[in-house]
User: Which sequence fits this backbone?
């Protein structure tokens, strides 16, 4: 990996990117410290006891750093009461003040708590979605204005040994940054670097950086660009990882794992926060599960280095492949489900996979999350399956059951087979199988699809190495990403598979996914997890996407209840993106690429957006969901369930 494209120490050998240590009170971030887990309160900051009690629930769950919103001076001042009450109860966990728009609140908080978080997009700038033409001179003049506003906080933090997180959010880039860099990962990096350079000018280095977005591809690309920039300028500030507005339940977990897990796989990240639309203490076990996979990762079996990396790590480019049946080419990635270990297979077995059979009508109904192929191994079915569903048998079983079925072969069987399907042959390949003879045959056969697997503890890196070998050898065979798991909880499977497969998919690698899960949960959950990973990586859209913030003390309505209400009436609107934001801070900016927005703008008042444009202001909350439906209908995006 050349220095121009470098963003981590190695693409094949797991090692943490070594950052400087920054102390948040008594808790160290970066350096040789473990990856820290944190969360944020959702209570009203002025309600001291409620905030203290929620903080204690978070800390008891394992939260190592507690963040609290301070939207104005009065909340910043009340942080002293919250801190005192926590100490009185025996809790010394460091506190972070979350600041948007109000520099004076940040300056007060910096004298009280151990860390302040500022958003460079709105600390000294305002966002009006205006395009402004800047000359170099006028742009520099704006930087001087920002510097003048920001210097007091830098001096206070340095004097009080208070740490600072410079936290860029994709959705709240200033009009100035947007005008020069666009709505891009590069703009996110430059937004943070402007503030970082001011800190360095004053020899202040107790800084943590973050690049958050609700789009997992943007998250990954922005952090990689940031590290690349730091490497080029000999910087090593710790990284706080997160995906904003990930949502709730399995969708929120899968989306968080794709964004955060992809970065952790390459050794990036010193502290993480999983943002779920749930009580904050429920975020902690999810974050802990993501982090613990790396406790002994460095001991993995050796993987040969990638000396020529053909993958563009900073922009999404899908690998070019042949089209085989409905795989590869311009087709969306397919989902293959594993039935080879199932005791008995009947038509009802397929209900969990998105297919339902109507006896009166004598036909199959197919949902948007109906898997594309089922791997049966040596189990033979003797009934008609939906015409859109592909059946895959082990090669020797296929030889005597070829009708409407495809063979699954080992690399050795494929190389020696005297008879193959004239439509599709799925070849099981691990990195050690990838020899010159196999690559040559794959390049000459237009019916082959590779199913990759790995036994390496650092499996994503080994599979990435396999992809680079195919690309560098000009082999365009489609690839299904396969991973096997056993004896995991439902949540563990979702988090592990989302990390392992998502990290490849966000780089444009993979034409499908195959989760082989033994004793990990129901077929329905496993199938939905596969579709959830494709949705989170934006490679195949099969349902409505909800960009929902995790709530905080600024929230103006019950986010969990409201999200559930909106989901109940819009979950059938496949491909639509709906932003549900608790306040204007997480409003039009954070739902940057949502089609419709539902934003709290006052107590009991909701403002509706079409993309970034306000459509209706201050609607009574009790009418807002119906008005959202009417808005969707007005723009022609509504379909009846």
Assistant:
């Amino acid at each position: 990996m050349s220095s121009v494209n470098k963003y981590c120490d190695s693409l094949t050998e797991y090692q943490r990117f070594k950052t400087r240590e920054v102390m948040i009170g008594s808790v160290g971030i970066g350096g040789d410290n473990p990856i820290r887990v944190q969360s944020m309160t959702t209570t009203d900051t002025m309600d001291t006891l409620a905030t203290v009690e929620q903080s204690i629930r978070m800390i008891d769950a394992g939260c190592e750093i507690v963040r609290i919103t301070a939207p104005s001076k009065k909340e910043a001042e009340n942080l002293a009461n919250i801190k005192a009450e926590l100490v009185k109860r025996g809790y010394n966990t460091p506190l972070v003040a979350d600041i948007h728009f109000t520099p004076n609140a940040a300056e007060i908080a910096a004298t009280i708590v151990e860390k302040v978080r500022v958003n460079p997009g709105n600390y000294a700038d305002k966002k009006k979605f205006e395009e402004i033409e800047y000359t170099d001179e006028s742009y520099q003049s704006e930087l001087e204005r920002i510097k003048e506003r920001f210097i007091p906080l830098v001096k206070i933090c340095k004097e009080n040994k208070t740490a600072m997180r410079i936290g860029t959010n994709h959705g709240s880039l200033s009009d100035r940054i947007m005008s020069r860099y666009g709505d891009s990962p590069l703009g996110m990096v430059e937004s943070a670097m402007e503030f970082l350079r001011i800190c360095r000018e004053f020899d202040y280095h107790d800084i943590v950086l973050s690049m958050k977005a609700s789009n997992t591809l943007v998250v990954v690309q922005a952090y990689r660009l940031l590290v690349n920039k730091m490497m080029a300028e000999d910087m090593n500030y710790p990284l706080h990882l997160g995906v904003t507005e990930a949502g709730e339940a399995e969708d929120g977990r899968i989306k968080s794992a794709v964004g955060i897990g992809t970065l952790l796989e390459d050794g990036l990240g010193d502290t993480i926060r999983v943002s779920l639309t749930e009580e904050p203490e429920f975020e902690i076990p999810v974050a802990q599960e993501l982090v613990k996979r790396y406790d002994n990762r460095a001991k993995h079996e050796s993987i040969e280095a990638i000396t020529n990396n053909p993958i563009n790590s900073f922009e999404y480019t899908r690998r070019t492949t042949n089209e085989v049946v409905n795989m590869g080419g311009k087709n969306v990635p397919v989902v293959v489900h594993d039935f080879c270990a199932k005791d008995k297979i009947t038509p009802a077995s397929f209900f969990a996979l998105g297919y339902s059979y109507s006896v009166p009508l004598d036909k199959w109904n197919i949902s948007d999350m109906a898997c594309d192929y089922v791997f049966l191994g040596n189990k033979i079915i003797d009934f008609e399956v939906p015409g859109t569903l592909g059946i895959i048998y082990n090669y020797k079983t296929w030889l005597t059951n070829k009708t409407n079925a495809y063979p699954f072969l080992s690399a050795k069987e494929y190389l020696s087979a005297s008879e193959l399907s004239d439509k599709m042959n799925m070849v099981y390949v691990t990195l050690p199988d990838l020899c010159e003879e196999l690559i040559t045959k794959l390049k000459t056969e237009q019916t082959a699809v590779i199913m990759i697997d790995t036994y390496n503890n650092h499996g994503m890196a080994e599979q990435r190495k396999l992809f680079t070998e195919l690309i560098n050898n000009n082999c365009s065979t489609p690839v299904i990403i396969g991973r096997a798991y056993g004896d995991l909880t439902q949540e563990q499977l979702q988090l592990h598979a989302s990390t392992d497969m998502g990290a490849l998919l966000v780089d444009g690698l993979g034409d499908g996914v195959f989760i082989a899960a033994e004793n990990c949960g129901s077929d329905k959950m496993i199938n939905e997890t596969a579709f959830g990973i494709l949705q989170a990586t934006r490679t195949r859209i099969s349902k409505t996407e909800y960009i929902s913030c995790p709530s905080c003390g600024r929230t103006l309505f019950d986010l969990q209840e409201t999200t559930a209400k909106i989901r109940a009436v819009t979950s059938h609107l496949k491909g639509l993106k709906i932003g549900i934001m608790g306040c204007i801070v997480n409003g039009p900016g954070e739902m940057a690429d949502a089609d419709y927005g539902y934003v709290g703008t006052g107590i009991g008042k909701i403002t509706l957006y079409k993309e970034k444009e306000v459509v209706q202001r201050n609607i009574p909350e009790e009418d807002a969901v119906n008005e959202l439906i009417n808005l969707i209908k007005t723009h022609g995006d509504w379909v009846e369930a």
Summary: The first strand starts at residue 22 and ends at 24. The chain has a mean pLDDT of 91.
